[in-house]
Amino acid sequence: MHAHIRKLIDHLKWADAATLRSLRDAPNPGGRALQLYAHIVAAEAVWLARIAERSPDVAVWPALSLEEAASLAERNAREIEQLAASLGPDDLGREIAYRNSAGKAFRSTLDDILLHVFLHGTYHRGQIAMLIRDGKSEPAPTDYIAFVRGIPAARTLPPPLADQVR
Fold it and tell me: How many domains is the chain built from?
């Protein structure tokens, strides 16, 4: 397996766990933040099912409790580790046939699917962080550089909207 895929798998697991801690620690993260977290882990599960050529057992936008989402994240972490352990030198170029959530058929390489999963989670974790911050709590840093350095990136907050030029 390529080293970049190994790092991105490790980051995904770390960032999912950090986001879960943020949701647990925030006094009022809001329903939208939980909905987004459930979507992140559900989408991971759906893609892992597609890679394994089986039907997904969870919807892309499921209604999950925080603990149900946490359990799914743990299952995903185990499954992606099993996938990583099984990859041979040419497997990332293998095409996967699947149907999207609208039922349309596609074929994508395993490499592209995995990169999508990593980027998709990053996008929505940023939305969750914003919602947690809007709720007056501090989200866990999930930036890739914080992961590889082992310490959070420097934190600079944007100025209040009233102070920005319109």
Answer: 1
